Amino acid sequence: MEDQSNSCCGCGHPFQISSKTYRRTSIQSRIKRRTFSPYEVLSQDGIQITPAKPNEDRRYLCEGCVARVRQIKDSKDRMDEAKAAIRNQETYLGEKLQQSGTPGTSLTDSDISGPQPKIRPPRRCRRAAYRRRPLLGARGLRRTLKNAWNGKTKGTITGFIKSVVRKEALSLVKSIKEKDVDESFSWREFVEEVEGKCPLLTATLEGAISKVAKGIDEGKRPLHLGPILAEVLFRRNPRRCKRFQLLNGLILYTSGCRRSVLTRFNRVGLCSSRKSVVSFANKFVEKYRNQLDVWKHSLEEESTARNSARSLLPSFKGTTNEAEPLDLSVRTTHAEDVMTDATDIQGTTDEAGPLDLSLRNMNAEDVMDNTDTRGTLDEPGALDLSLQSLRSEDIDADTTQQDNQGTLDEPGALDLSLQSLRSEDIDADTTQQDNQGTLDESGALDLSLQSLRSEDIDADTTQQDNQVHHFTMCFDNINLTTTAHGQTRRKQNEVYNMIHTFATKDRVPLNQTPAQGTVAVTRIPANNYLPTTVDDEQYRDEIAILVRRILVTWLPFFKILHGEVQWHIPNTFQQESSMKSEMVPLGVVDFDENRVGEMIQYLESLRQYIPCTDKGEPVTTVLFGDGLSCERVNDAQNARISATDEWDQLRSVEVGVADWHKRVILLQDTFNEILKPESSGSAGTLSFLKNILKQRNVKPTAVKKCFSHAFPFVAFAASIYVVLFAMQRLNMTTMDDVPPEIASGGLEAKRVLLNELSTEVTNFMWVSPQELVSKVEELDSTPEGREDVSTDNGNGKYKYCRCKTDKQSVMVECSNRRCKRGEWFHLECVNLTEATVPRGNRRWFCGGECERQTTVRKKVNSKSAKNTEDHVRQYSRSLLFQALGAMARRDAIRENDGDRIIRHWKYDLIQFALKGHYKYFIHAHKLLTMINGAAPPRIRHQLKWSRTVNTTGKPGRNVEMDLQMEHFNRVFKESIKTSLGKYTQDTINRCGKLVGLGQQLGASYDDDVCEAAPSVSGAQRRGVDRTEDMEHAIEELIGMDLFADIPGRKHTGLDGYMFTPYGVKPEILHRKIQERKRVLADVGNILSY
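The chain above was modelled as a monomer; its predicted structure follows.
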C-alpha cells in the first residue's frame, strides 16, 4: 500500500506545506474547536474504519474534508433534534419513533436493520475522545453572565461588584502614604499601584472611557485613567488622597483665581479648599525659602575653611640683633601684573641697621600699592625675596603676604626664589607645610619652587575651590493704587509703595579667584572707562555677524549658508550660561524706597540672607536693580557712612546696575533722534517705515510701555536697510533675483560674497570713538589730569556756574559751546530741578545771549552745509548704527557674554554723557570702576557673569535681571487682585513669595501631571512671519538710493541732520570721569574689602 500520510484519505489531494507545517487533521484526532473526531462521526453512520497501529502510517484529512465531516455531524444533530420533537407528540409518527430504537439512529435503520451493534474504538482513541472538559470556558462564562443579566439577577451582580470595589478602595487608601507636592510624580506608577490593588475598579473605569473593545492605548492609558482614579480616591478619603487636588488648587491660586472659584471647584472635587491651599502654600514657600539658607550656609562654611587655611600658612619672621641688610627686590614687574590697593612695603628694625628696599625696572603704574612685604630683624639675619616675571593672576595676595615672612632666631639667611610661579600651581593646603622653616642655629633655608604644575596639587582641595557658587539678588519697587468708590474726606485713593526681591544662584562658578586684590579708585586711568582699539575690532565683528544673519535669513540665494553662520557667539562660560537658573523669591515687603529711612530698614532686613564669616563679618552680596533703585541704595549707604560696624554701614550688599532699563533709555534716545512724526512723508525714515508697516503699537514717546513692540520694530528696520544695501550693491530689483557674481560660482562664491557684504555694511555705518579717546588720554597724561581736573580759572576762583562755588550738586550744561558765563551751572542756581532738566535733543541756554549766538551760527552752518553734506546718507548711517547696536546688546544679554556686556557699557558711557543722562553716567562709571579693579575679584566676577537669568535652560535664552523682575511684578499684581483691594501684610507676603513658584509649579504640572502633553489648542508658538512686510518695504524703497553720497539731500522734518555719535567734548567727558572718581574715593561708595 502506498504512503497515505502525504495525501488526504478523503479526496486524495496531496497536502501543501504552509508555515513549515501541513494543514491536515488526523482521522482519530479531535477537530479544532469541536468535541468530536472524524472517526466518531463516520463510525455512527456505519462506516467501519480500522484504527492505524503505532508502526503504521496514520490517515489524515484535508481542511475541506474536515469541514464536510463537521457538516455531517451538524446535520445529524439537527435530525436528532427533529426526531426528539416528534417523539414527544402523541401522534402516529411519535408513537412509531417511540417504538423504534435509540434517538440517535435513523428511521430506516431502526425499521429495517434493527438495532446495530455499538462499535467501541480502541482504548487510546476512546481516552482522547472522551477526555473531561471544563464546565465553562471563557466564552461560556461570558455567555452565562450575559444571560443572567436580567431584571432579577442584575441587582445581585451590581451589589457584588460594589462590595468588591469598596473593599479594594479601602485597602488602597490605607496603604497610601502622603507625599509632598514637589516630589517626583508619575501617573504611570500611580495607575500601576491602583491596578495592583483595585483591578476591578480600574477595569470598570477603563471600560467606561474606552471607545474600543481592546481598551485604551497603552501610551495614553496612565494620563486618561490617572486623574479619574485620583478623583475617586479623593472622594473616598479627602485627607489622605488630596495630592492631585492640592496641585490643582495651587495652580488656580497662583493664577489669581478668586475665592469663589476655588470654593466652587472644591465642591465638585476638582481642588482642595481655599484654606487647605493657603496653608499648604505657606509650607511650600518655606520649603523653597530653605534653599537660600542652604546657599548661605555653604558660603559660610567655604569662607570659614578658607580663613582657616590662611591662618595655618607659614610665617617667616626675621629677627636680628645686629645690623644686617634686608633686600627686597622686585624685577621686571609689569603694569597689568600687579593690582594692589592698600598695602605697603614696610621694614622694622629694633636696633641700628640699614633697610634696603630696591624696586628695579618698575614703573609708577606697575605697582598699585597692594603687595605687603614686611620684614622684622631683631637679630642678625638676611632676607632676600626675588620675584621674577611676577603676574597678578599668579599669586594670591593673602598667601603671598604670609608666605614671604620668615623667622630667624639666630644668624642665618633665608632665600625664597619664586620663578615662573602661577596660581594654579600652588595649593594652599599642600604648600603650607612645605613652606615652613625655622632656623634655630646658623644656617640657610632655601625654598625653590620652579615649574610647579597643577597636577601636583591635592585634587580634592582644587575641586572644592572650583565649585564655589555664590548667589546674587535683584530688587525693584512696586506701586499699587486702590481707587475709592464714593470718595469722602477720609476715604480717598491709596498708593502702596513696596519692594520686591528675589535671589538667584550663580551659574558661573568662581574658579580659585583670590579674595582680595583691589586698585585705588584714583589710580585707574581715564582711558579704562572708554573703548580701546581692541574693543572696536570686537564690536565690528559682532556687527558683521549680525549682518550675515540678516542676509542669510532674507535673501534666498544665501539660505544655503544658514548652517555656517554663527547664531550663538561663543564666550568663556557658554555652557554654564545655558543652564537653567535657580531662583528663590524673597517676597514683597512694605517699604517705600523713595524714603531713606525705609530704604535703610529694607537693607537691614536683607541681613538674614547675607552669609557671614567666622568672625561675624558680612560676605558682601551683589544686589542688582535699575538706575533709580541703585541710587536709593547709595543714598541709604551714605546716610549710614559714619557707623563703625560694616553691618550698620549697610556694606553687606554691593549694588549693581542692571541692563534692561539701560536698553530702554538708549532706545528712547534713538526714537527721540531719528523717529520724528513730521518725517513720516519722507521715504526711508523710521517714521515712514512705521506707517507703511502699520506699527500702531509702537509709541515713540513711551518706549518703556511698548518695549516688546518697539525693539522688534527697530530690529526689523535694520534688517530692511541691510537687505536694501545688499540689493543695491548687487543691482537687484527683487529679493528673488540671483546676482551674476554667484550665478555660476558655487558655494564658495556665496561665502565670499556674504563676507564682503557684511564688511561693507559694517564699514558704511561704523564710527570709531578713538579720536575722542585719544584726546581724553592726552588730558589724562597731564599732571593736572592724572590727579584732578582743575576747576579754577587761573586766579584761584571756581570757573563754573554763576555762584563760582564748588558745590557737590547736579549741574546742567549750556548748549552754547562758547558760553562765557560758566558753561556748567548748578540746578538750584538757574531755578531748575532734575525733573525739569531738558532731555534728549532739547537744548538749554543760560541766557538770551548764548541762544542768539547759537541761532546765528546754526544758520551760517546750515547754509554752508547745504551743498556739501548728504543728510539722507547721514540718517541711513545713524539708523543702522543705532539699530544694529541695540541688536548687539540684546544678543550679548541672551548669550550672557559678560565681556561683551561690559564692552557695551564703555560705549554707552559716552552716550550718557552726550545725551545728558547724568544718573546713568554715574552708574556706568561706578560699574566700570569696579570692573577695572576697585572691587574684589569675586565682586568683579559676579558683576560681569551673573547679570542674567535663564528660565528655560536653553542656549541663547538669558534675560536681564531687572527684566525678569518686571515679569515677577506683573504676576504679583495679577495675583494680588484676588484680595479686592485689601492689601494686608499677610496677603502681600503670600502673593509675593508665590510669584516665582507659580512658574515652577506650572512647569512641574506640565511635566508630571500633563506628562508633557501638547496644548489644548495644539498650536505652538512660532516667530512672526514678516516676509510680506519685508517685500512691501523693499518695493517702496528700492528706488531710493539711501546709501550713496549725493550732496544736498535731506529728509523732510530732519533738516541738517548729522550723524555724530561721539559729539561730546573731550574736556567735558574727562572732567566728568575724574569728578566721579574723586566722589567715589571721598565718599567711599566703593566698598573697602
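The chain has a mean pLDDT of 74.
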